[in-house]
Design goal:
CATH architecture of the largest domain: Orthogonal Bundle
Strand order of the largest sheet: 1-2
Order of helices and strands: HHHEEHEHE
Strand content: 5-15%
Helix content: 55-70%
Number of strands: 4
Structural class: alpha+beta
Pfam families: HTH_1 (PF00126)
Function: Required for the induction the katG gene for catalase. Involved in the response to hydrogen peroxide.
Number of helices: 5
Keywords: Activator, DNA-binding, Transcription, Transcription regulation
InterPro entries: LysR_HTH_N, WH-like_DNA-bd_sf, WH_DNA-bd_sf
Protein name: Probable hydrogen peroxide-inducible genes activator
């Protein structure tokens, strides 16, 4: 069985709206394409998920059983996407701290310790200057 995140998103949208046309509009796909994907999911799960009539759509017992799990999986997937995105952003982040040697020499160990303990940035550097103002980096 090969169920995709997209399939779960389609199922959850139909289950929440209980209307194939409105769900298709919300998902920006055609209603026949959505119906086909739901039928494929039902075939893979070997259970009908919806009772369809000309005017109504209702969840079957199997659909009602699947819904909270599908919602949970979509939430977990969204969290995973955020975590990967945050890791990718932090992976390329670099912080450069500029300081004057007369003032910064005593502060440098404390700055390094705080960055190591509190900043999720993998790279940082220090630029020191003998003058009053460090050069722009």
């Amino acid at each position: 069985m090969d169920v995709h995140v997209r399939d779960l998103r389609y199922f959850v949208t139909v289950a929440e709206l209980l209307h194939f046309t409105r769900a298709a509009e919300a998902l920006f796909i055609s209603q026949p394409a959505l119906s086909k994907q739901i039928r494929t999911l039902e075939t893979q799960l070997r259970a009908p998920l919806f009772v369809r009539t000309k005017r109504t759509v209702e969840l079957t017992a199997a659909g009602a059983a699947l819904l909270p799990h599908a919602q949970h999986m979509l939430a977990v997937w969204a969290d995973a996407e955020q975590a990967v995105g945050a890791a990718a952003v932090n992976q390329d982040a670099t912080l450069v701290v500029g300081f004057s040697t007369s003032v910064g020499r005593g502060l440098l160990p404390a700055i390094r310790a705080r960055l190591a303990n509190h900043a999720p940035m993998p790279k940082y550097g220090c630029a020191k200057s003998l003058g009053a103002t460090p050069p722009a980096v």
